[in-house]
């Protein structure tokens, strides 16, 4: 944050202009100590006069001269010394730190670079007006640690900063910083913290067209998290957000990939009201891109007809096998393939429950292509989740999908049916009478 503007007591720009050539000449001739003595005197003069422009030039000159002399130890000493001077203007210190940061990429070796980073982080620690510079230096340090293979240390370094509270940092840079924190947490396999950090980003910000790259990065990270947690419905939503991005829609290949993944994960998601609604929306989006196989697979789950797992494997297996979510062949891919089989079985049970009030367990196993034990397990799971109502009579070998009704409910239902029947009879009698009257009038005429 910028400090309140101090009133300049004296303009030292003429003095600075006059002494700089002499100071530079001393430095070039090897009299570095003499040039710094002159600079220190000039720094005190500009600081006492509260001349921001001149103070800034003098502090930056310290950094420039030490860099030209390649005396990195001296540079670090002066950074610490000048930042602690009483009455030093905050804006001048900020410019000096920024000048020092430009030298980071020009250090002769990694040891010198790390020492300079450590000095800058020490100086900026606890200073609100240097919070952005501290964040940038910290990110450079985290990148170095990651390149060295210390992912855990890099993630811990990044977590020390709460950039969402930095008022002086631009929104884009702030979002980019948070995304980097998320990425390192996922690399560290700290999924709980990654999820917590993701909530610091306001997704309404992604509606702006200038931040589409950040939007795609965010949802890619969220998909990685959702797949680890087996939250397939959330993964589907994230892929829909990716598809809804203009730069993705403009690229047919990316749009097709996003829709195909959205289809796959909405199918893998357990059935509930939200999934049922989302599957209809995804089906509409599947019509917008050229994905006939995925669209047909989705149609199978929307249509209330039985599916044979063997036929699903035969028709859709080769295409689904090319999807990265199923093609890796690792444990996660095998688990997702098993989940797809489970969703097919669950769909079939819902269809059977809709068309049958009662069915034998033998016939049920034939329709589901499953042994008795697995059939009972799937039925129990759907009953517990209240997706269907079912009762199993093991001795009789029957499964009943009709709810047993209380005597009052039966009487009320019978009463409604009788009232409806009497209403229809009355309406029919009225129509017959009307026709007879019309016919008799026509006959008289």
TrEMBL record:
The keyword Iron-sulfur does not apply. Residues 231-406 form the PCI domain. Keywords: Proteasome. InterPro entries: PCI_dom, PSMD12-CSN4-like_N, PSMD12/CSN4, RPN5_C, WH-like_DNA-bd_sf, WH_DNA-bd_sf. GO terms for cellular component: cytoplasm; nucleus; proteasome regulatory particle, lid subcomplex. Pfam families: PCI (PF01399), PSMD12-CSN4_N (PF22241), RPN5_C (PF18098). Belongs to the proteasome subunit p55 family. This is 26S proteasome non-ATPase regulatory subunit 12. It comes from Linnemannia hyalina. The lineage of its organism: Eukaryota, Fungi, Fungi incertae sedis, Mucoromycota, Mortierellomycotina. The gene is PSMD12.
């Amino acid at each position: 944050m910028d400090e309140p503007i101090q009133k300049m007591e004296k303009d030292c720009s003429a003095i600075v202009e006059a002494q700089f050539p002499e100071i530079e000449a001393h430095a070039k001739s090897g009299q570095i100590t003499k040039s710094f003595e002159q600079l220190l005197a000039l720094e005190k003069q500009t600081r006492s006069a509260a001349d921001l422009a001149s103070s800034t030039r003098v502090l930056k000159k310290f950094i420039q001269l030490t860099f030209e002399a390649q005396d990195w130890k001296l540079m670090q000493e002066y950074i610490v010394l000048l930042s602690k001077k009483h009455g030093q203007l905050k804006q001048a210190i900020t410019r000096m730190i920024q000048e020092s940061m430009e030298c980071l990429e020009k250090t002769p070796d990694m040891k010198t670079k790390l020492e300079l980073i450590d000095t800058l982080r020490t100086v900026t620690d606890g200073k609100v007006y240097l919070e952005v510079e501290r964040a940038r230096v910290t990110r450079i340090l985290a990148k170095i640690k990651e390149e060295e293979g210390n992912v855990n240390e890099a993630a811990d370094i990044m977590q020390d900063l709460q950039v969402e509270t930095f008022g002086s940092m631009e929104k884009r840079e702030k979002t980019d910083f948070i995304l980097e924190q998320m990425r390192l947490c996922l690399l560290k396999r700290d999924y709980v913290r990654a999820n917590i950090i993701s909530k610091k980003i306001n997704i309404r910000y992604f509606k702006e067209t200038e931040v589409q790259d950040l939007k795609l990065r965010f949802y890619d990270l969220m998909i990685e998290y959702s797949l680890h947690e087996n939250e397939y419905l959330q993964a589907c939503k994230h892929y829909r957000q990716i598809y809804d991005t203009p730069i993705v829609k403009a690229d047919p290949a990316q749009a097709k990939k996003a829709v195909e993944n959205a289809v796959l994960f909405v199918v893998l998601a357990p059935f509930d009201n939200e999934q049922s609604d989302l599957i209809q929306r995804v089906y509409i989006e599947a019509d917008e891109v050229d994905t006939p196989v995925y669209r047909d697979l989705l149609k199978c789950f929307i249509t209330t007809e039985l599916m044979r797992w063997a036929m699903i494997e035969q028709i859709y297996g080769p295409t689904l096998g090319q999807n990265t979510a199923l093609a890796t062949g690792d444990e996660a891919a095998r688990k997702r393939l098993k989940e797809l089989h489970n969703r097919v079985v669950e769909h079939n049970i819902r269809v059977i429950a809709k068309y049958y009030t009662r069915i034998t367990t033998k016939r049920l196993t034939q329709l589901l292509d499953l042994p008795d034990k697995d059939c009972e397990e799937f039925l129990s799971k759907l009953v517990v989740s209240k997706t269907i109502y079912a009762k199993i009579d093991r001795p009789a070998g029957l499964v009943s999908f009709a709810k047993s009704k209380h005597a009052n409910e039966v009487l009320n239902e019978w009463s409604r049916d009788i009232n409806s029947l009497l209403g229809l009879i009355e309406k029919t009698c009225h129509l017959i009478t009307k026709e007879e009257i019309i016919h008799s009038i026509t006959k008289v005429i």
